[in-house]
């Protein structure tokens, strides 16, 4: 694209439909200008490879994938109207409304586009079809998405006796390392955004965070269904339910598609299709990041393989880093959390440096510890968890003398107040008893 892309000139966005051929799914979308000559077309591609076992996926799940992937392209201009060019059920449009409102919260906040969260959604309606019985086998081996971080490692180790199949979207070295260590079977699917979107971003389109976990979850449901597997078992924890900032009367949550709100929405949508909602749940929903870190500390074989930093997972392979960047909120949060659990020598070996030596990052650590501006827009845990860890560090002589550790000594009273301020009420969770027992056994 050579000419500027002016978001305000687009009045509607159309979800055209989808096709699937040879195991390759394409979701098709159009940004509609005042004149058809100004229209911009996009196609999202998901190559399922051999994971479909030669069959055609359930069209209910393909429609859901088409709707969910639309956010990547809608956000380029966020026009006031979305037209769905194929008949949909009322509950499908409601699903899209909720994914837009929650999943694009951070995007709308950063771009100051409150209207982006509530476009008018139009299109022909489908009547609810007669539902056929769901023959899904809840006792079949689970499909466990792997993210390359500590959370999915905890799920892998807990569920190994159930012989899970591991799963991820696209190829990333930290994920491959964790899969190799586990010794479990693995399925990979390749997802590609349209190059045209990258071009319009460079030409002036709006850009920002989308609910990637929602997209990957539905891809996982398609794979599990095609392969005759059991549930898709996520590793989203209680902390992901907590948002980052209040804006326009809404809780803006970077981790919305990891939250129990989205988990409930997707389960309810599956049920509306006549599918068993237990096809999808998060094993770790009842656990805090601190509790997950405690469990991860018992799996030293993964210490030098896992990475929670975003840099090695950039979609553009040319922008990927090989290891922890040491500067982002995810690196900083995991460093604080694991420091008292693994000890100074081990965390320095994992990160390749000691992050408490960098006094320029004090403000970022303050945000993580709950004594700064607000929770960073990243997948980090709650304030109290980081504050608890920092208090333990302050009392450990092996950390004494490090610049940031010494600077935070004067904030001990504030850290203590933050550490004491948290909600211990049970989290809403949907973990079936069989899986709850597997998790409890690994304590």
TrEMBL record:
<comment type="pathway">
    <text>Cell wall biogenesis; peptidoglycan biosynthesis.</text>
</comment>
<dbReference type="InterPro" id="IPR058741">
    <property type="entry name" value="MurL_C"/>
</dbReference>
<feature type="domain" description="MurL C-terminal">
    <location>
        <begin position="306"/>
        <end position="421"/>
    </location>
</feature>
<dbReference type="InterPro" id="IPR058740">
    <property type="entry name" value="MurL_N"/>
</dbReference>
<keyword id="KW-0961">Cell wall biogenesis/degradation</keyword>
<keyword id="KW-0413">Isomerase</keyword>
<keyword id="KW-0573">Peptidoglycan synthesis</keyword>
<keyword id="KW-0131">Cell cycle</keyword>
<dbReference type="GO" id="GO:0005737">
    <property type="term" value="C:cytoplasm"/>
</dbReference>
<keyword id="KW-0132">Cell division</keyword>
<keyword id="KW-0133">Cell shape</keyword>
<dbReference type="Pfam" id="PF26298">
    <property type="entry name" value="MurL_epimerase_C"/>
</dbReference>
<dbReference type="Pfam" id="PF26299">
    <property type="entry name" value="MurL_N"/>
</dbReference>
<dbReference type="GO" id="GO:0008360">
    <property type="term" value="P:regulation of cell shape"/>
</dbReference>
<dbReference type="InterPro" id="IPR043689">
    <property type="entry name" value="MurL"/>
</dbReference>
<protein>
    <recommendedName>
        <fullName>UDP-N-acetyl-alpha-D-muramoyl-L-alanyl-L-glutamate epimerase</fullName>
        <ecNumber>5.1.1.23</ecNumber>
    </recommendedName>
</protein>
<feature type="domain" description="MurL N-terminal">
    <location>
        <begin position="7"/>
        <end position="283"/>
    </location>
</feature>
<dbReference type="GO" id="GO:0051301">
    <property type="term" value="P:cell division"/>
</dbReference>
<dbReference type="GO" id="GO:0071555">
    <property type="term" value="P:cell wall organization"/>
</dbReference>
<comment type="function">
    <text>Cell wall formation. Catalyzes epimerization of the terminal L-glutamate in UDP-N-acetyl-alpha-D-muramoyl-L-alanyl-L-glutamate.</text>
</comment>
<dbReference type="GO" id="GO:0016855">
    <property type="term" value="F:racemase and epimerase activity, acting on amino acids and derivatives"/>
</dbReference>
<comment type="similarity">
    <text>Belongs to the MurL family.</text>
</comment>
<dbReference type="GO" id="GO:0009252">
    <property type="term" value="P:peptidoglycan biosynthetic process"/>
</dbReference>
């Amino acid at each position: 694209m050579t000419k500027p892309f002016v978001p305000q000139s687009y009045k509607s966005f159309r979800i055209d439909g989808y096709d699937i051929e040879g195991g390759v799914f394409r979701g098709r979308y159009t940004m509609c200008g005042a004149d058809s000559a100004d229209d911009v077309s996009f196609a999202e591609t998901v190559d399922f490879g051999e994971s479909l076992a030669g069959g055609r996926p359930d069209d209910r799940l393909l429609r859901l994938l088409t709707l969910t992937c639309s956010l990547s392209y809608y956000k380029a201009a966020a026009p006031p109207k979305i037209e769905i060019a194929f008949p949909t059920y009322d509950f499908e449009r409601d699903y899209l409304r909720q994914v837009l409102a929650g999943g694009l919260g951070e995007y709308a906040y950063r771009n100051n586009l409150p209207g982006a969260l509530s476009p008018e959604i139009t299109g022909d309606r489908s009547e609810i079809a007669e539902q056929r019985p769901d023959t899904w086998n809840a006792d079949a081996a689970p499909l466990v998405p792997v993210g390359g971080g500590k959370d999915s490692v905890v799920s892998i180790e807990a569920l190994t006796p159930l012989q899970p199949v591991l799963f991820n979207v696209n190829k990333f070295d930290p994920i491959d390392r964790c899969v190799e260590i586990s010794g479990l079977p693995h399925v990979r699917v390749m997802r590609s955004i349209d190059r045209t979107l990258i071009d319009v971003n460079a030409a002036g389109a709006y850009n920002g965070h989308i609910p990637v976990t929602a997209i990957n979850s539905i891809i996982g449901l398609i794979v599990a269904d095609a392969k005759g597997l059991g549930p898709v078992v996520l590793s989203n924890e209680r902390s992901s339910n907590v948002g980052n900032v209040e804006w326009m009367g809404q809780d803006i949550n970077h981790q919305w598609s990891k939250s129990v709100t989205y988990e409930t929405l997707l389960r309810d949508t599956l049920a509306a299709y006549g599918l068993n909602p237990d096809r999808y749940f998060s094993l770790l929903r009842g656990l805090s990041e601190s509790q997950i870190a405690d469990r991860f500390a018992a799996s030293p074989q993964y210490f030098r393989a896992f990475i929670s930093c975003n840099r090695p997972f950039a979609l553009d392979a040319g922008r990927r880093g090989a290891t922890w960047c040491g500067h982002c909120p995810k690196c900083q949060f995991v460093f604080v959390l694991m420091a008292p659990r693994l000890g100074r020598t081990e965390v320095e070996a994992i990160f390749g440096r000691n992050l408490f030596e960098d006094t320029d990052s004090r403000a970022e650590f303050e945000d993580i510890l709950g004594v700064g501006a607000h929770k960073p827009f990243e997948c980090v845990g709650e304030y109290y968890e980081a504050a608890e860890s920092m208090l333990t560090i302050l009392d450990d002589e092996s950390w004494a003398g490090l610049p940031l550790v010494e600077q935070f000594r004067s904030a001990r009273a504030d850290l203590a107040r933050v550490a004491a301020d948290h909600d211990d009420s049970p989290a809403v969770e949907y973990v079936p008893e069989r899986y709850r027992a597997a998790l409890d056994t690994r304590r």
